[in-house]
Design brief:
about 350 residues; 4-stranded parallel β-sheet; alpha/beta
Length: about 350
């Protein structure tokens, strides 16, 4: 903004306000501001929120995927290598010249066809600068093998990790987890074992939100006294792993979203979910254990059920379903209305 006398009023703002403004931009946009004037030439090195994106948006990502289908395979490989190297050089240079004494508030990295060693170096840099929020999305890379600092960074409050490796899912097996301030943890495309989940829930004493998307779950228990929000979406329970029972015990959960937890003859049980008021359930693969699944949710106020095969599942089980005395809103999606209506019994 320039006033009528020709002075630049925005540049006259204090540094902490200007860096706060820059924190809302992506890293490529932040660095471009250094050419505005001398006043702006060094501000970027003090920005506390960094957002590095290989593609600027999901739309651009899809556009590049379409373009790749019509370009010769060799040209695609050459373009990917060149673009990836350019991006890695940019991120490395940005972090190298950034003010090392300035802590981070948040660090976001989204990269496709990434170099695992470079990604690990950037993540380590971020964690050494005490971020509160960390978001990492890596696609088409080798296993990252996260260092111990990732599991013991005491400043972290919110972590989202999506590691789409070339083969299978990223396996997470730390020796120790201690994240005393972590309140929100989200996994995507990860292989999560029972011992890791136990360490996570014990080592995060204030964890309130746990989300798992497209993960391989090799566990039979999720137990927490602090969780208020739990989401398990499109996850896989290996059919060769025994037992096939997933028991959820979280007495303080208020929001529950179970969306197609895939398995073969998988049983999901809820215990001690006294405070759950909102639940979104998809039961396509719960089968004969459906009534048991609902038995721990009798205090619900809001319930949404999603299933194409729900009518067949409930035949012969309606008498075993619980009574929902507090239910105010029932939403039925892709299900038989007549069959489900008998789930609700009014006092």
């Amino acid at each position: 903004m320039i006033n009528y006398e020709g002075s630049d009023r925005i540049s006259g703002l204090p540094d902490f306000i200007l860096t706060d403004i820059l924190s809302r931009l992506k890293a490529k946009e932040v660095i471009q501001t250094c050419i505005l004037s001398k006043r702006w030439s060094k501000l970027w090195v003090f920005v506390p929120c960094l957002d590095f994106r290989y593609y600027e948006s999901e739309a651009e990502d899809r556009e590049n995927e379409v373009r790749e289908t019509v370009i010769r395979e060799n040209e695609v490989r050459e373009n990917e290598v060149r673009d990836s190297e350019r991006f890695e050089n940019f991120v490395s240079s940005f972090l190298r010249f950034r003010d090392d004494a300035t802590d981070l508030q948040s660090f976001s990295l989204s990269h496709r066809k990434s170099n695992s060693a470079s990604a690990r170096t950037w993540i380590d840099y971020a964690l050494k600068h005490n971020p509160k929020k960390l978001k990492i999305v890596l696609e088409g890379h080798d296993r990252v093998h996260l260092h111990d600092i990732f599991f013991t960074c005491e400043s972290l409050e919110d972590v989202y990790m999506d590691l789409r490796i070339k083969e299978g899912r990223e396996k997470i097996k730390p020796d120790k987890i201690y994240l005393p301030r972590l309140k929100k943890r989200s996994f995507c495309h990860a292989s999560i074992h029972g011992d890791y989940m136990e360490k996570l829930l014990v080592g995060c004493p204030v964890l309130e939100s746990l989300s798992m998307f497209y993960c391989s779950l090799k566990m039979n228990n999720i137990s927490s006294q602090t969780l208020k929000r739990l989401c398990i979406s499109r996850c896989l329970l290996n059919k060769n792993w025994e037992p096939t029972t997933l028991t959820i015990c979280a007495p303080n959960v208020e929001y529950l979203d179970i969306d197609v937890c895939v398995g073969y003859d998988m049983e999901t049980r809820f215990r001690s979910l006294y405070d759950v008021r909102k639940a979104w359930l998809s039961v396509d693969f719960v089968g004969k254990y459906y009534s048991q699944l609902l038995s721990g949710l009798s205090n619900l106020e809001n319930l949404q059920l999603r299933s194409d095969a729900l009518e067949d599942m409930l035949k012969g089980e309606l008498c075993d379903c619980p009574t929902f005395y507090y239910l105010k809103n029932l939403s039925l999606v892709d299900s038989c209305m007549c069959c489900l209506w008998s789930l609700v019994r009014f006092p």
